[in-house]
């Protein structure tokens, strides 16, 4: 399990798909990509999220020290789909 911090991500040299499926902690929340769920670490509070939203959250966390372009996000989240401004 990874916690976001000021250090470079531990998966920096790993395969790109691994962090997208690895549970991560963001503040008091545990992101569980396999379940599409956020769970509060100190209570029973859970939030179910749409799969694409979890994918975005994990992708941003995996690229925390990079500036991502709109085109990169579209390519990652909507591959082989034509996406307009809306």
What does this structure look like?
By secondary structure, the protein is of the alpha+beta class. It has 3 helices and 5 strands. It has a 5-stranded mixed sheet, covered by helices on one side. It is elongated and about 40 Å long. The N and C termini lie far apart (35 Å).
SSE blueprint and pairings:
Layout: E1 2-3, H1 17-21, E2 24-26, E3 29-32, E4 37-40, E5 46-48, H2 51-62, H3 70-77
Parallel strand pairs: 1-2
Antiparallel strand pairs: 2-3, 3-4, 4-5
- Provide the residue-averaged pLDDT: 81
Inertia-based shape: elongated
What structural category do the secondary elements indicate?
A: alpha+beta
Note poorly predicted spans.
2-15
Number of helices: 3
Strand content: 15-25%
End-to-end separation in angstroms reads 35 Å
Instruction: Please compute the radius of gyration using only Cα atoms.
Output: 14 Å
Helix content: 25-40%
Largest sheet, in brief, is: 5 strands, mixed
**Which strands sit side by side, in order, in the main sheet?**
1-2-3-4-5
> Got a strand count?
5
Give me the strand/helix succession: EHEEEEHH
Give the tags.
single chain; 86 residues; alpha+beta; 5-stranded mixed sheet; 3 helices; 5 strands; 19% strand
Produce a short descriptive summary.
With 86 residues, the protein is an alpha+beta fold. The chain is built from 3 helices and 5 strands; from the N terminus they run E-H-E-E-E-E-H-H.
């Amino acid at each position: 399990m990874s916690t976001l911090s000021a250090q470079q991500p531990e998966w920096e040299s790993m395969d790109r798909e691994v962090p997208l499926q690895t549970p991560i902690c963001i503040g008091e929340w545990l992101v569980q990509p396999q379940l599409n769920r956020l769970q509060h670490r100190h209570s029973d509070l859970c939030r179910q999220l749409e799969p694409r939203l979890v994918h975005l959250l994990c992708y941003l966390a995996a690229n925390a020290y990079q500036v991502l372009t709109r085109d990169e996000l579209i390519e990652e989240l909507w591959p082989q789909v034509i996406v307009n401004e809306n």
